[in-house]
Amino acid sequence: MGSISKRLRSLEKTPMNETLDDNDSGGCDNTDRISNLPDSILCHILSFLPTKYAVATSILSSKWKNLFPSIPNLRIRLDDSLFLHPESVSDTYLIRFMNFVDRLFNITLRDVPCIHALHLSCERFDDGRHISNWVRAALHLNVKKVHLQIHSSRNSNLLVDSLFGCKIECLNLTFDFIQHVPECRFSLPNLKMLVVQGMKFNSVNKIYAGCPLLECLVINKCTCYPGQTIRICIPTLKVLVLFSNFCHQKFDLELDTPKLERLHYRGSMADCFLVNNLNSLHMAYLDLCRNRHQNPYDFSQHAAEFIKACVNVEKLYLSENIITMLQHFPRPMPQFRNLLFLTIRIDTFGWKFLRSLLNCAPGLKNVFIIEGFNEECYEKFKSSLPESMLHWFVTRRGKSYFWSSN
After folding, report:
1. Which among 103, 117, 270 has a CA at the least distance from the CA of 195?
2. Residue 48, domain member (yes or no)
3. pLDDT confidence of residue 315
4. In-domain check, residue 2
5. F-box domain spans which residues (predicted)?
6. Is 385 a domain residue?
7. Which residues neighbour 379 within 8 Å (Cβ) at sequence distance 6 or greater?
8. Among residues 41, 172, 233, 242, which one has the fewest Cβ atoms lying within 10 Å of its Cβ?
9. Cα–Cα dist 33/277, whole Å
């Protein structure tokens, strides 16, 4: 970022089309070739810069003056840290940030018909009234995607209310400060993708309850109260990514997602599962660890229950922790009639479970084995297979092995 700023300042000092004489330039041609590029290419270059620097190019010459607002699929990326100097903690820079964003929406983008995305990150700026006004201004410009990373806010309800009823299709939220859920209102009638990070689950529940068309939900490191039930009951949901981090407390998980096709569940194992409908699921990625209060048998039972709910999948990933627990669970594995692709991370003791899993997946075509592979274990494993599987072959890819029936 510093090098870009220095380059822009150096360009301000030198006229864009000035050619130095040979004695000063060493015979080099100092013609401004960048400004002579077509506007479409210049706009493409500007689209990769943070908004602060992209807007600053308008002072270089009349050629650059109106380029930024004309960028196709314009993405606004605003970060208050770009206005802070490491050696200073003065609020002057935050005022400069506020004034810059005000001018951006009220003047620079005033005649722009639409913007593709707004990414607003506020580490120190906490005026919820101004932030909500910026969000409303972006919504008036028909923004499609909004990413808000706000770490603290005064007048936080104004910020939340600014999203009420908006027609955006993708929303990424990191709100560390929402505590008073009853005062928050959410209605996002067109939203299809929601990413929430670092929030409390009671706030998350209120958000997606107001999203009747939601298809993709990503929940990353959100917190819940001890003993709380995490309910994800969304009839339209197709993709669920759940990164839980509740290793110190008990919690239950309820899923009612009849159209869910892809599940990525990583983190702490729930104490109780209530899974009503996963019949549409065709891909599951399961990387779960035991909560500190769970004994090994409970973890094994919970893992088996959740695996049983995923019997219709075509693609399955199982982590080493799950394998370790499942191989000690006394009940037999369910039948995976549709399973075609299996990725499994095992240690040297996981081969016995793999053999049991192969017997439960008659249509399995490919197995990707990550680590835990040595020739002695493989030979013992191979000798225990039925004759119908002896035609399978294994190939090595780095530290992993690909096992195929083809």
Report:
1. 117
2. yes
3. 94
4. yes
5. 31-78
6. no
7. none
8. 41
9. 61
Residue type, 371: E
**Which residue, among 384, 395, 399, has the nearest Cα to 353 in the 3D structure?**
384
Per the prediction, the chain carries an average pLDDT of 78
Which residue has 């009234």 as its token pair? 129
Name the residue range of residue 11's domain. Answer: 1-72
Could you tell me if residue 161 is inside a domain? no
CB atoms within 10 A of CB 171: 22
Q: Which amino acid type is present at position 236? A: T
The crossing angle, in degrees rounded to 10, of helices 92-103 and 128-140 is 20
Spatial distance between the Cα atoms of 179 and 369, rounded to a whole number of angstroms: 44
pLDDT at 301 over 90: no
Q: Is 15 helix (H, G, I), strand (E, B) or coil?
A: coil
Element (H, E) at 369: strand 366-370
Q: Distance (Å, rounded) from C-alpha 78 to C-alpha 122?
A: 8
Q: In the predicted model, is pLDDT for residue 132 greater than 80?
A: yes
What six digits make up the tokens of 296? Answer: 């090994």
Residue 392: what are its φ and ψ, rounded to 5°?
Answer: -65, 145
Report d(CA 78, CA 53) in Å as an integer. 10
pLDDT at 117 over 50: yes
Asked if residue 273 has pLDDT above 60, the reply is yes
Half-sphere exposure of 303 (CA within 13 A, CB side): 33
Cα 193 to the center of its chain, rounded Å: 10
Could you give the number of structural domains in the chain?
Answer: 1
The answer, yes or no, to whether residue 300 has pLDDT greater than 90, is no
